[in-house]
Amino acid sequence: MAFNHLPAAMHDALGPLSVTPVTHSVPMAKNHRPGRPAESRGSRPSPAMILDRLATGAGRAARITHTEHLPPRSGTHAIWPDRVRPEVISAIEKAGIDHPWAHQAAAAEHALDGESVVIATGTASGKSLAYLAPVLSTLLDGSEAPNGRGATALYLAPTKALAADQRRSVKALAAPLGNAVRPAVYDGDTPVEEREWVRQYANYVLTNPDMLHRGILPSHPRWSSFLRALRFVVIDECHTYRGVFGSHVAQVLRRLRRLCARYGADPVFLLASATAADPAVAAGRLTGLPVVEVSDDASPRGELVFALWEPPLTDLHGEKGAPVRRTATAETADLLTDLTLQGVRSVAFVRSRRGAELISVIAKERLAEVDRSLPKRVAAYRGGYLPEERRALERALHSGELLGLAATTALELGIDVSGLDSVVICGYPGTRASLWQQAGRAGRSGEGALAVLVARDDPLDTYLVHHPEALFRQPVESTVLDPDNPYVLAPHLCAAAAELPLTEADIALFGPAVPELLPQLEAAKLLRRRASGWHWTRRERAADLADIRGGGGRPVQIVEEGTGRLLGTVDAAAAHTAVHEGAVHLHQGRTHLVRKLDLEDSVALVEQAEPPYSTVARDTTAITVLETDTEIPWGQGRLCYGSVEVTNQVVSFLRRKLITGEVLGETKLDLPPRTLRTRAVWWTVTEDQLDAARINPEILGGALHAAEHASIGLLPLFATCDRWDIGGVSVPLHPDTLLPTVFVYDGHPGGAGFAERAFHTARAWLTATREAIASCECEAGCPSCIQSPKCGNGNEPLHKRGAVRLLTELLRAAPVEPDEPTTPEH
C-alpha cells in the first residue's frame, strides 16, 4: 500500500527510508487577550470549587488520583513596530487591545523584516494577533497601490472549522479598515459560485492543506494574480503537521514556494503553535526555509487546576474474567452532566466520533430527568457532520446557547471558545501536545480554569494517572517529520511536474532523495524526461496520487437506506472497522445500524435503530520482514529496526453493553485483507533467555502477546503517536527470525517514524512497559495492563506474570540507549 493509485511495481521500487525525529515541548500557559477586559466573574465558582463539587458523592473523591495547580502569571507589554500601520493599531485598539504583549511585537518585527517566524507561545497567548498585525498592515499598503491587485496573504489551518473561525475573527478585527482587507474561506464547503470571486478579489484567503494540494496548486494559472502578489503564508497550529500528514504538508509547501517563484513572489512564512520546544527546527523542516523562533511567552495566564481521574472498578468481569472499570465514556458523561447542572460552561473532548455522540446522548438523558429544558444546552461536535451542522454548533457555542459540548479533536485546534470554565478529557489524547492543547481551551477569557483527565481502562491511561510526573514534569514527545520519505515525496514530484515541468534547479527545493526517485518515476512511466525537464505523462490528475491525510482512498459515504439522505462520511482506512455490516453508527445523537458496506462504490447503507450495545471490530495481522536496517544485541537477544509487510484483515466484531462494556457476543465478517509496507521495531529472545525467565512453551505465546499489547499502549509516551497509529504482532517462532519475536510497526505506508523512535528509546520504553504490567493490581491481566481493545485474537492468549518475567530478562542485558539520530539539514 504505497501511494494511492500508483502501480505496484512503483511501490516495490521505492524501498524504505529512515525517519528522523524532531523534539518538541509544551509550555503550560493560560491566557487572555491583551487589554481585553476579563469577563466579570460574579458568582462563577473557582476551579477548585468546581472540582470539589464534582468530587462530592459516594466514592467520588477517591477517583481523583492527583491534582496539579498551575499558578497565574502576569504579562509584559510592549509597543508595536513603527511599520505597523496606525490604522491597523487603531483597529486593534477598537477590539479592546491597548498594547501588545512583548512576543507579539517581536514576531511582527521579524515578519516586517521579511524573516519567516514561528510563534511558539502558550494557548490563547495572542498568536493570531502577532501575525495579523503585519499581515493587515501589508494588505493595507497593497490596497493603496496605483495598479494591480495589491498584496495578498494565504492562511492555512488543519481543519475547516478553524479556518471558518479565523475568518470571523479577521473580518471583525479588520472592519474599521473598510474594503482594504477582503477575507474569504476557500475550501471544500465553498459554493462553486463563490469560488471565482475568491480567486479574483479576496486578498486574505483562508484554506487548508488539502485544498491547497488538490485545488489551488493544480489550478495555479487561475490563481496567478493572487500568487504573484503573495506576501505572507500563515500556518496555524503547525504542531499538528507531524508524521506522514506533516511530511505531505511539507512537500505541498515546497510546491507552493516553487509556483510563487514562477510568478515572481517570495512570501514570508508565519507559523503558530502552542506546543513546541524546538520550534525553529520543526518549522524549518516543514517549510524548507530558515525560520526565526519567538517562544518567550509574555502573556498572562489564569490559574489552572488539573485533576487526574480514574473511574472505579465495577462488579462486572470482561474477557477472560478480567475486572472491568467503569468506562471513561460513562464517567465523562456524568461529569459533563454535573458541570451543566452547575452552569459551568464546558467541553468534553473525546477521541472518537462515536464517543462524542454517546456522551452527548447520555448527558441529555440525565439532564432531562432534572429539567426538560436542559438537554438542548448540550450537543455533540465531530468531523463527518455536514457543513451547515458544524456552523450551527459553532454559533451556538459562541453565543452561550450551549453549556456543554462533547467534541472530538475537530474542536481542539484554536477555535475561539472564550468563556469556557472547564474541560473534561475523556482518555489520554495520545500526546502531551494534544493534552495541553485541549486543556487550554478553558479559561480563554483570562479566568481560572479546571481540566480533568478521565482515564480509560488501558495501560497508558492507568500508568499516567498513577505517574503524574510523566505528564507534568516532562516536555512534549519527539515529533516525527520526514519530507524525504519516498512514499510521500514521489507523488508530490508527480504533482509538481503536472503543475510545471520539473527541472534540475528544482532538485534542491524538494530534497536530497529526488535524484534517486526521478529515474524510478520515469521507469514507472509516470514522468517523462524531455529537454525542458520532467513532465507528467498521464491523463488523470497527478494530485490524486497523494492522499495527504493517509485516508487510503476516497471517503465512504454514510447514506440512510430508506430516504437516501447523506448523513456524513468516514475515511476509507477506517471503513472496515467503523461501518462494516452490523456496526452501530451514531449521528447527531441518533443511532443507526449499518446494513451494507459497498467498498466498490464507497457507500455504507444504514437505518435508524436503537440497539442496547455498541460494536467493536476485531482483526488479524501477519507480518513479514523485508529488510533489517539496524540491529543491536540485547544479551543473547536482538533489537532490530527495518522494513516489513503487514497483512491485516477485519474478521469479526463484538457487541458490548453501552455503559458497562460487557461483551454480549461476536459476529464473523467477510472483508478483504489489506497489505501495508511500513517500518517496524522488533525484538527477539533465545531459548536460554526463556529458560532464565522460567518461560515454558505453554505460556510463551501469552507472555509475548501481553508484552506486545502493553508496549503498544506505552509507546505514545515516547513518540508523538497514538496507539491507533501503530500496530503489533507477537509470534512464538517467526519464520524470518527463527526466534520468539515481538513486532511494533507504523500504521502508515513507508513508515511515520514512530517505530524508529521506539528503537532509539527502547530501554526506557520497555522499562515503563514492564513497570505498567507489574504494578497493576489485577491478578491475571486486564484492560489497564495487558488487554487491548483492538486485539484481533480476543485477547487470547495472555500471560501477565510471564510478560513481567520475560521483560525483566530482556532488560537485564539491555545496552545504554543508542544515540539519537541527528536532524539532517535541508
From TrEMBL:
Helicase ATP-binding domain: residues covered: 108-294
InterPro entries, per database record: DEAD/DEAH_box_helicase_dom (IPR011545), Helicase_ATP-bd (IPR014001), Helicase_C-like (IPR001650), Helicase_put_actinobac (IPR022307), HRQ1_WHD (IPR055227), MZB (IPR018973), P-loop_NTPase (IPR027417)
Keyword Glycoprotein belongs to the record: no
One of the Pfam families matching this protein, by short name: MZB
Annotated keywords: ATP-binding, Helicase, Hydrolase, Nucleotide-binding
Record-annotated Helicase C-terminal domain positions: 331-487
PROSITE patterns: HELICASE_ATP_BIND_1, HELICASE_CTER
GO terms of molecular function: helicase activity
Record CDD domains: DEXHc_Hrq1-like, SF2_C_Hrq
Keyword Hydrolase: yes
Region called Disordered, residue ranges: 21-47
PANTHER family xref list: ATP-DEPENDENT HELICASE HRQ1 (PTHR47957:SF3)
Stated name of the protein: DEAD/DEAH box helicase
Organism of derivation: Streptomyces rubiginosohelvolus
